[in-house]
Amino acid sequence: MFVGALMYNFFISQFLYPDVTGLYIASALVGLGAAVIWTAQGTFLTQNSTKHTMSRNSGIFWAMMQFSLIWGNIFVFFAFSSKDLIDKDTRTLVYGTLTAVGLLGNFLMMFFRKPLQDENVDSEERKLPFVKGIVDSFALLKTRDMTLLSVAFIYTGLELSFFGTAIGFTKKFGEDSAKFVPISGLLIGIGEVLCG
Q: How many CB atoms lie under 10 A from the CB of residue 106?
């Protein structure tokens, strides 16, 4: 998880001194980091939960993650308010703060508890061949529960990727339409926390 989170922080930090090549490289690395961090996060939750606490722990994780949309967008709303163009100082303030908060999160990961080992399970039994793991993943995708979850995953991905920027560039909202981007993110975050 630590390495995946560092890649997220590297991506955010690229906006401090943006250049096209750096942003493309950081975008590719954040994609790799996302694969690592989400897989590791799922494993971490599984290893530190029982069948009785899994739903609770997943819900707590989801709410904490979505709260970042709320706090981050409140911060951006005030930082970008009454600005037609985002100047270097504002960009440095926003992305410097986001990078610092991300690095603080990385630091706090070092204090995560170690997963509890189940003495009843032989460590050799836990190892799964790579190809079998891939095949089992696709088999899981065909299950009813995962198919239903996939709809939510696709919606969330599209919503977070395109909706805010579509609002920011819609000139029908007026000259300062960019102010609606953090408001949109804030409302999405509230919806994700309350309904997720």
A: 17
